[in-house]
Amino acid sequence: MPLALVALAIGAFGIGTTEFVIMGVLPEVAGDFGVSIPTAGWLVTGYALGVVVGAPLLTVLGTRVPRKKMLMALMGLFVVGNALSAVAPAFSVMLAGRVVSSLAHGAFFGVGSVVAASLVAPEKKASAISLMFTGLTAANVVGVPVGTMIGQAAGWRVTFAIVAALGVVGLLGVARLVPDLDHPGGATTARTEFAAFRNPQVWLAMGMTVLGFGGVFAAVTYIAPMMTEVAGYSPGAVTWLLVLLGVGMFAGNLLGGRYADRALMPMLFGSLGALSLVLLLFTFTAHDKVLAAITLTLIGALGFATVPPLQKWVLDQAAAAPTLASAANIGAFNLGNALAAWLGGLVISAGLGYTAPNWVGAVLSGSALLLSFLAAALDRRAKAAPADAAPTPVR
């Protein structure tokens, strides 16, 4: 594999770390700024909303920009945002830093996927894209737990300073290792890209992504206070719980990718249904240390098992504009994160306890399951329509 893929993976590792590590240090950040846990949850919501806006916007604006320059600009934006978070004197500045860094998230993965695929032979494109995304899954196994541990020991500002440094490494790697790539002769315009969204199935797919992944983040956003206040873990144990969550995500992503090509919709039905059930059970298992750890691992696995089938479904339904569809779907994942963080904060603020976000997540995932049934039914109807509409032969 080309070394350029390593540079892309490093960038993905940094982005994945900054997105998820905030959940491990949320109590420390809230304490330093003197805000409540639900208010600090806006650092998750703000980042997610930034991805929702930045993913399609920057991808469309960059349709005429050389891929390498676009990736470098995105990594530069990421570095600035994390550096601002690290030195933020007030909560509002910290939130602004999170939003700035989030703008690069979706476009980086959208453009990066195209670059990764162009670096290898056609029969290795999927492997190349997978290698880039390995940086994101590795962030959940290594970056987030280590970042949480550093944040609890040396302060959360050190964590974000290190993430900014990772961004610099990724930027230098792209500058050094990624070749200059011009857009193909058939480069699409913004109008062509957006035309794919006339297909209702694309919107259904986005809805499944928002609700399905939102179910995961309803529970995961407030995992630190839930595990310390309800399960009885020490703050230091949150690091190892995040390792379990990351291992679950890594395994679920691999399994989802393996089986999505064989039976996409059955895989999606099974993972969303099981996710809804496990999230509902988490309301009860969160009161026991062992059961809480097991359930958390399952949530990570089932949540990320939905990612490959959801991403493939979107690309199948928007084949005319895969770059924008890919970036927009990453935005949809983060819209689900924002929705879940907001709803989770509401039920906690209402006095329903730190386990209340779990049943909110179960409702969101269950709604995604219903949408997947509708999408499958419409797909079957569309495939049957040509046969039904065939004219009767004249005798």
Automatic annotation (TrEMBL):
It comes from Saccharothrix xinjiangensis. It is a multi-pass membrane protein. Its main location: membrane. It comes from the Bacteria. This is MFS transporter. It is found in: Cell membrane. Residues 4-383 form the Major facilitator superfamily (MFS) profile domain. InterPro entries: MFS, MFS_dom, MFS_Efflux_Transporters, MFS_trans_sf. Keywords: Cell membrane, Membrane, Transmembrane, Transmembrane helix. The chain crosses the membrane at residues 42-61, 73-96, 102-121, 128-150, 156-175, 202-225, 237-256, 263-284, 290-310, 331-353, 359-378.
